[in-house]
Amino acid sequence: MMRLERRSHVPLHLAIIAPLAAIFAALLLAAGLIAAADVNPLTAYGEMVNGTFGSRLSIAEMLTRATPLIFTGLAAAVAFRARLWNIGGEGQFFVGALITAWIGHSLGVPGWIGIPILMLAGMAAGAALLAGPAFLRLRFGVDEVVTTLLLNFIVILFVGLMIEGPLRDPLAFGWPSSVPVNGDYRLPDLIPRTRLHIGLLVAIAAASAVWLILARTVFGTETRAAGLNASAAAFAGIALPQTIMGVALLSGALAGLAGSVEVMGVTAGVTTTMSPGFGYAGIVVAMLAALHPAGVVAAAVFVATVFVGADAMSRATGVPSFIADVIVALCLLTMIVALLFTTYRVRR
Amino acid sequence: MSDAIDLLLNTSLWASVLRIATPLIFGVLGALLCERSGVLNLGIEGIMTMGAMSGWLVVYMGAPLLAGLIFAAFCGAVMGLLHAMLTVPLGLSQHVSGLGITLFASALAYYLYRLLVEVGDLPPTIETFKPLDFPVLSDIPVLGTILFNQALPTYLALTAVAVMAYVLARTPLGLAIRMTGENPHAVEAQGLNPIRIRIGAVVVGSALMAVGGAFLTTTAFNSFFPGMVQGRGWICIALVVFAGWRPGKALIGAMLFAFFDAYQLRLQTTVEGVPYQLFLMAPYVLSIVALVLVARRAEVPAALMAPYRRGER
Fold first, then answer.
1. Hey, of B28, B90, B108, B224, which one would you mutate to test binding to chain A, going by the most A CBs within 10 A of its CB?
2. Which residue of B has its CA nearest to A151?
3. CA–CA separation, B67 and A72 (whole Å)
4. Average pLDDT over residues B78-105
5. How many independent structural domains does chain B possess?
6. Residue B278, in any domain of the structure
7. Is B304 domain-assigned?
8. What is the pLDDT of residues A262-291, one digit of tens each?
9. Residues 235-274 in A contacting B (C-alpha not used; CB under 8 Å)
10. What is the pLDDT of residue B312?
């Protein structure tokens, strides 16, 4: 009889092969859907690569798209490590964005101090939004999956309410938008004449910081222990409620920071359509990275490549751009299967 | 204020309760069946989206409405099979797999819709299920309009509640399903196969969810558009907890929920000066409140979310 046996540690080559194999399998499966649109999948994938890496401008666009994904990917990775199922990245993104636009519109301090203040405000808002579900889980045993998911809908409606009401930008045409942040608080460009801003560097710094926290601090060890075996961790004297709440605050803060940076770096004002599902895609990013902070950066770049490339491919070939969402979702499913082979080995 | 009370006496409010509850009843029954066997199915939101699209599509292409429901159920079952394969024999995280199914099923539904349907300025429409007209019964004042003037899928949903309640509580199959959710090792000891029971429950449960989605496009609305499920799947997951994993209570929960939804929809137009978003938030806030109220005394199936591996304790 075949049995699965847990590996004591994951060899490096498997940790690298697993996401690549998962991506390959996902692209192979999606090729069938592209073929169904009467387009040669190889041509389509060629257009995608070309659409992302074909010019300086498109590479900058891809990295602009990757920036919020790094933050939301980190948010999901931190939470999932401790088995805190934060599916509310989308809502935390929006509260971070909203508070940044709100405070940033009227704040009167210079940019070098205002920008960090606004980032902290976004982080606080995201953290506060996840603290609620974490509290409900710890105090009443309410499953945080459902509460964080439902909060996403509540927050989007709240954003709509605010930008059609108290925070409405009187100068905006067409779709309602919030008032923009003060010009002093727009993040400087990283590459001139593109949308790419220094938020990317902030995201990479955040990934490094999270890596350090998880690998080198007591809190990081407690997080891992809580995720691997909660009862054993409690037996070993780890205060689980405090650890879970700490994880929630960190995870929510990262997702809130995503929204804050997106407002200061790209949109200036908040609209209900400013996120093409950054919060949800963050979950895929985290899983593709096997919940590792360094992997999150790479996985975010991959997911951003799919989204930006699919738009270009759609224009060139007529394949609906929803194929990007299909590919990304397939990656999540193939990755969890691939992870099975890295964490377990098959024994006869 | 008196307007708000007048609304409660309005027959059309009460008639709309069953209509709004119908997709929730299908969804909550599906989620309940999966969870009773020990598998959390967070694929529900995507499966309902897939059901909404696929059911609409075959009717749009010329099939009868009933075939739309059947095809939706089939597509839901396929997605359920995928979730079951990943979580039951492979024992992968039910949370992550379920979310993956939701992302995949909704993305696939949108992709296929764009690919197969020519969308102009307005989304194309179909002829939907119409309210049935029962001789005598439908003509009873008030009660006739509320109970005997619904479309066919609503009666199917009510039948499904009765069937599910009977099967789970009174048949050997139901006992096996419930036991698999409580203690799969005991099921194995009885000579039954818990793996097969779980796969079956997830496949059938997912088919029910998809029919709930198809109700939206074949009865409530007459077209398909992205985002139309609007979190109904997640609300169903909350309703299962609220109902204590019992079909009868699930029906009551869905109706209660639908009542508040119907009421807030009407309040939106009568109460002036309150932003409409506050009313729209109500169903989601209500779901969270309901979860908090019952969480402490919830009798969760003991083996829910615990993967079963033969010979492993």
1. B108
2. B284
3. 42
4. 95
5. 1
6. yes
7. no
8. 999 999 999 999 999 999 999 999 999 999
9. none
10. 61
